[in-house]
Amino acid sequence: MPELPDVELARRRLRSWMGGATITAARSTDRRILRPHSPATLGAALRGRTVRGVSRRGKWLRIELDDGRRLFSHLGMTGDWVRRAPEAPAHASERVRIDVVRAGGRRSSVRYVDTRRFGRLIVAREDIPEWRELGPDPLADGIDTRSLAESLGRSRRAVKAALMDQTVLAGVGNILATEALWRARIDPRSRSDALSRGDVGKIVQGLSAEIRKELAARRPAGDDARDESFFAYGRAGQACPRCEASLVRVVTGGRTTTFCPRCQLRRTSSPG
DNA sequence: AACGGAACCTGAAAGC
DNA sequence: TGCTTTCAGGTTCCGT
Questions:
Q1: Using the CA of A161, which nucleotide's C1' is the nearest one?
Q2: Whole-model pTM?
Q3: Which of A111, A155, A227, A243 has a 20 to 30 A CA-CA distance from A54?
Q4: Over the stretch A35-71, which tens digit does the pLDDT of each residue have?
Q5: Which nucleotide is nearest to A162 if distance is taken from CA to C1'?
Q6: Is the pLDDT of residue A220 over 80?
Q7: Which 8-state DSSP code applies to residue A78?
Q8: Residue A81, strand partner residues
Q9: Does residue A255 have an active-site annotation?
Q10: Dist. CA A118–CA A210, nearest whole Å
Q11: How many Å apart are A232 CA and C7 C1'?
Q12: What is the dihedral of CA A71, A76, A79, A81, to 10 degrees?
């Protein structure tokens, strides 16, 4: 579920649930998600702390605490944050719980659920490398066409793989890349350094439009993105919404890519 | 140095 | 029906 729009929606929920609240307890037994720290250290680090704010960069969330420490959260492939009553039993794939009390005395329990356990939760005293090394965030920083063109021009990879490189742009995943390239009418297998400035401009427009659309959709936590309507993602074999040709599925950089072989043209020659 | 592919996990859906 | 295979929105490690 988690690409930039999903993580941004999670950030807004966490802010409304935890902003200004004090953590009364934090528990987990999942060594994988908390690696490299041990589950025992989580409660000790968080108990008694007040949440100052929740920020996001790319697919990373940063929960800022009153002692200067931060809790970094990456949702991996299937992670999400949900709010429950404190007495609510643990969901089958619940991995972490953080109980909070708000200024008015209202108590709630914020739970991290993650079926496949690819997510991460890291307490640190300063920003972690995974956060610092991210490229520009399309929402927080905007996308500068010129610097993106420079960045893409330096790589010979398929443009789809380059767009999903978190140091190129933070937060772009398989759905955003697939949809943006469909909107831009560019074959995802085109070499990154073969794109014209106009191509990059269309990709920027495509990414922005898709991010706006997905943020507006505000699908509730836990919803499957496949319920949503995409132009190309997950629609192999179906008709292209633009030209009616049959959408094709290929694998690039280890990830499934769907595109229209008729109206998404492959860029070949290097731009001048 | 940069790139493709496997590995890491779990469960749902499709295939036989 | 039930067993097997395939697939999934992410990152990281390893070999070339």
A1: B3
A2: 0.96
A3: A227
A4: 989 999 999 999 999 999 999 999 999 999 999 999 9
A5: B3
A6: no
A7: T
A8: A112
A9: yes
A10: 25
A11: 17
A12: 30
